[in-house]
Amino acid sequence: MRRHLPLIAFCVISVSPAAALDLPARKVGLWELKMTSDTLGMPPMTMQQCIDAATDKMMNSIGGGMRQELCSKQDVRKTGSTITVDSVCQVGGMTITSQAVITGDFNSAYTMKLSSKRSGGPSIPGMPADETSNTTLEAKWQGACKDGQQPGDIIMAGGRKMNVRDFQNMPGMGGRPPGAAGGPPQKN
Q1: Residue 86 pairs with which residues in a beta bridge?
Q2: What is the pLDDT of residues 83-136, one digit of tens each?
Q3: How far apart are CA 70 and CA 65, in angstroms?
Q4: Which of 56, 53, 42, 50 is nearest to 6 (CA)?
């Protein structure tokens, strides 16, 4: 599990609703996220995120900063209540072309279906050189954060807890996004 933490962190940021450009803020409180993927080599994951307006915005900033550095294309379209994000990004010598389709609302529940095609780059054990993957994220608002949870906490299955503020210090996460002011954010 420990060796998967940077991948999990990247996935959480990549599939979080605020990680794309100009998406509505989520309702403050506790969100349960269920993520399934046909190729990540991991079983389905369920996690909880305790957010307030600042940490939801921070996650947007981290994800947005990563995308500005890595992506040559980011198109966001809204049709009715459906948001579609098309992107082309370079990560570790790989080109990843993806489309995310988000339905629902950011107050009670939303679903994101992410389809991506990876090409080039180093081989990844257990995965084909060029692959297409499909990831689904189902998010449901649970109410207020639980006692002992701080805004930004992400609680994984098994009780492992990380905070979105710590992502920028993880190897491969790229530090503070471009244009972010000041030093590391203060913990509550």
Answers
A1: 75, 99
A2: 998 989 888 788 889 999 999 989 999 999 999 888 887 766 666 667 788 899
A3: 9
A4: 42
Q: Buried (b) or exposed (e) across 125-146, using 16+ Cβ within 10 A? A: eeeeeeeebebbbbbebeeebe
Percentages helix, strand, coil for the chain (3-state, rounded to 5) are 20, 40, 35
Tokens 């913990």 correspond to what residue? Answer: 187
Q: Cite the DSSP H helix spans in 120-168.
A: 164-167
Tokens, residue 91: 């990560």
- pTM (2 decimals)? 0.73
Phi, psi (degrees; rounded to nearest 5) at 130: -115, 120
R_g (Cα) of the chain, nearest Å: 16
